[in-house]
Amino acid sequence: MKTVIIVGAGPCGLLMAHYLLQRDSKYCVELYEKRPDPRLNPVSTARSYSISLGFRGRAALREVGLESLAIERGTIALGQEIHNSRGVVQSISRKQPRLLIERNVLTNLLLETLTKRYDASRLKIHFKHECIAVDLEAKSAAFQSASGYQPCQAYDLLIGADGVQSKVRNILQHKTGLEVKLRKSPVDIKVLTLRCYDNHRELTLNRDSFHLYSLGWAGALLCGLKSDGTYNALVSFTRGYNSLANISSGSDVLTFFRKYMGDFSQLISPEEADAFAQKPFFQTTTVTCSHYHFGDSVLLVGDAAHAVSPIIGQGCSAALEDGLLFNQLLDKYDDDLTQVFPKYTQRRRPDMIALEQISDSMVPLNIYLGYLMLLKHVFDRTLHRWFPKFWASSLVDMIAETTIPYRHILHSHSRWFKTINALNQLILRRGKRLSNPKSMLESA
Ligand SMILES: Cc1cc2nc3c(=O)[nH]c(=O)nc-3n(C[C@H](O)[C@H](O)[C@H](O)COP(=O)(O)OP(=O)(O)OC[C@H]3O[C@@H](n4cnc5c(N)ncnc54)[C@H](O)[C@@H]3O)c2cc1C
After folding, report:
1. Cβ-count burial 195-210 (b if 16+ within 10 Å, e if not)
2. 74 CB near ligand 1 (under 6 Å)
């Protein structure tokens, strides 16, 4: 039996454990997570966020028999409603419903089912253990536990599923020459919780839909229902155009949202507005690696290998799909890791490079590009319905509602992506000048 260390008990690490453990008794798994056990320390709703899982993510969960449980614990969005500041709503249907599930609900589900299905002879989970070092030659990893103890663990296979700031990736980068490119995504993001007014029907958002509010020229609020009946919203602004960057009081926050959401701004409680004003905006990091494996003993998966902007809503689906592909390759090559690892990089990397390019161009950086994308979506969908053999399906449908490899999607809409990317670059350059007026004066 091979000993596998998985670093990181996020969605990807936990699903990897499921896939490995369901392969008879070929593997035993030691899972190390730096945070405490989420089942004992529930994440506060203020810190949790909803993940929209498309067809890819759901297919990966289905393979380990967890799709229906995830649907039970999440909510389903049948379509999207786009609201403008005059209260006009445009509805877009989806061919396939989207699953909305909070990250902590998803990880708890994966965790509970793991511990129910496998006993301690094949699965050990160590919370509050942070990976601090890996000896690639000796095949052992060192951890820092909360109690100060520093255990060392030997492995046959080490899986780095430790997210954007991956320690395993850093070690591969410094010791093996792995090339890593980290980029800040060009949007400022904050998470907001909208309450639900059950007794005010006029203030009830359609529960079966995602809702998109435009917040001026280069901002948006995207929200969906959570399992507790509140709405989880991502507020985003293109870098350089952040109208909320200098707002520091809850009442200013409410005034701002009233302008764009009208009466629906009442869904933001005064306490939530205060908390929102105090929290800083964050920028996510995009990760690109030259390969995802080292020999036949270390593999990088999920955000550790290929994080993308959350605005495109694909990071988690892609992370879960990693597990599905890995499992298919183990089947195909009879668990021979010397063949599986290089094939994994060879198959996965072109798709993840394509996803990065798609995510750069799929996020409209101003409202006009947003409308242009919407127009293209409706146009492509209609023409594809009439001429399915000659006209490619809409991008949004292909990305979220199929398992077509991302590289094929990029190829089928390559001219569109190039154009939007060029326009996005112009918008960003202008934003840079606006947020740094001194450089404008100097260049003048
Ligand atoms: C606000 C927001 C909204 C998002 N919305 C969507 C969406 O709608 N759809 C979608 O598909 N994706 C979305 N994403 C992206 C999605 O959350 C990630 O792609 C996904 O969580 C990646 O899973 P992962 O397991 O690879 O990494 P993570 O979820 O980051 O998990 C990594 C785990 O490793 C642990 N860890 C880190 N370092 C160490 C260490 N040294 N030792 C031990 N443990 C360690 C961390 O504590 C963590 O638990 C969103 C992201 C954000 C931030």
Report:
1. ebeeeeeebebeeebb
2. no
